[in-house]
Amino acid sequence: MPYTTFNRSQIFTLTESLTKSADHYFDPCTLFTELVHQNPQAPYLLFESASTDDQRALKSLIITQSALTISALKSHVTVRAITTLGEYLLAYLQEIFKAELIHFQDQEAIFDLPFEATVRPRGVLTILDPLLALKSPEFSPFIGGLLGYDLVGDVYQITIPEEGRERDLSLYLAEGLITVDHQTKESRYEELFLSEITTRLESYKSFNQHLKHYQSILDRMSHHTDFPIISPELSTEDHTIQAVPTDRKANQNGLASLSRGSTQGYTHSYHQQYSQSYPQADGDMRSVMDPKKGVQIPDREPFKAVVESYIEQIHAGKLAQIVPSRTFTVPCPDPLSSYRALKTAYPSPYLFYLHDPEFTLFGASPESSLKYDPKSRELELYPIAGTKLRGMINGEIDDALDQLAEETLINDPKERSEHLMLVDLAEEDLALVSDPETIAVKALMKVDRYRYVMHLVSQVVGRLRDDLSPIDAYLAVMNMGTLTGAPKRYAMEEIYRYEQVARGSFGGAIGYIQATMEGEYFDSAIVIRSAYVADGIAKVQAGAGIVAESNPDREADETENKASSVIMAILQTSSMAKVA
């Protein structure tokens, strides 16, 4: 019977280089695919990142084995043990949450953890506290996964539609972890062990067996990468906005980060080029949004009507901005291949693939949700609002057209109005959890360029108050203003009234929290440009920011433009599957 009390030193980590040399560099996505195919009933999680500057690969991370899975619906949290270590951890949680335990069977426990502002301000996320508290010099708990949009229901006391509401969160405590640094070409495997059930010698033997298993998979793999080489014109380095007519002042230096770091001086040895099959113009986009190809497209008229009603509310002073969405569906027989196609055509700061036995979630998000560095205690929001197609001729970037597209974007009254309101909202959100004098706009209305589109972005930071954790910060700022609107609570209520369906993953956050002796690292992306796949059907959702200057037809077009890249990836790989 597992012990219910833990000594921190009972859990320890073994780690070793996964590859023998930099020459043995490999593609993590191919390894991940092999793991999923070997055991599709197990959960796996893949995070990858590409630089915003030139969109080269930065880092990849794979949860190869989960000790626990943690899911929640409303106030009920379900924790399932997958491994022997997971069983001990589950018994530990049962001991701590005795009063909240409402069911236990077959190594699965259900706890009732309703949000209470004074007693339980973290609601269902309270379940993470004792797990993160186990940190030690030999154990840094790593928990990754999805924080769904509908988590706001319990915290904000907002009524969530029952239709489509399945999970408010899906998290996984890593027992086995592979990390890859694409710049140094270093990769490592680490695994957790429990001294209570195994000696150090037995642990080393087990660890080496698992290490050799992964190395044997790598030996069978061809050595290539899915991240394409980007030509210099895609870098934002040469497209800095010199002046933006606004009364804001921003520090243009910005922060170097794992997801948006610079790759200056890094020489990539692979030469895979971009696919040219993605939508590059309105005509291409319309060819993607084709019911004959199995794409289910919602009627535009109800969406246009609600946009009109929101514009009226904005003029009446009830709303400043709001972000309704439309949902498209399409058959998706091979999500892994679709993800590979999406990331090859659209390298992004946040690439993710979550494989759960009950569903799959993959995407290429350009926008962080919340980042936190415990060394500086700095919180960061990175609002993106304002998108325009790159200036292209015959699929190639034309410098003059591209510069014209940038100028049109940053001078568009609608885009500027929407973006500045979201920067205001980001500052207001961070004010809830930051020392007031530390809130700053480090970058304002700069342009990030991707293969097919450019985005208007800003960077807002603040120092987390000493009495709060990054989980407190996330609960205070969710969901991001770029997916809700302002005033935020009223906007979310209005969105639910129109959409009549729970949003699930869309607009929530995917990422991780890791407790170290330095503190808790938190990094997450907004779940956009993504597909939620269940029973072979992909749900692709996309929103549009509505302000006073909005045009209903253009906003409907915007949702289709945003969804088209994901749908194209699915259609491309679906047609390949049929040929095969």
TrEMBL record:
| Pfam families in UniProt | Anth_synt_I_N, Chorismate_bind
Domain (Anthranilate synthase component I N-terminal) ranges:
28-186
Listed Polar residues bias regions: 251-267
In its UniProt record, a GO molecular function of this protein is: anthranilate synthase activity
Known EC number(s)? 4.1.3.27
What residues does the Chorismate-utilising enzyme C-terminal domain cover? 300-562
Question: Which keywords does this Swiss-Prot/TrEMBL entry list?
Answer: Lyase
Q: Which InterPro entries match?
A: ADC_synthase (IPR005801), Anth_synth_I-like (IPR019999), Anth_synth_I_N (IPR006805), Chorismate_C (IPR015890)
Question: What protein am I looking at?
Answer: anthranilate synthase
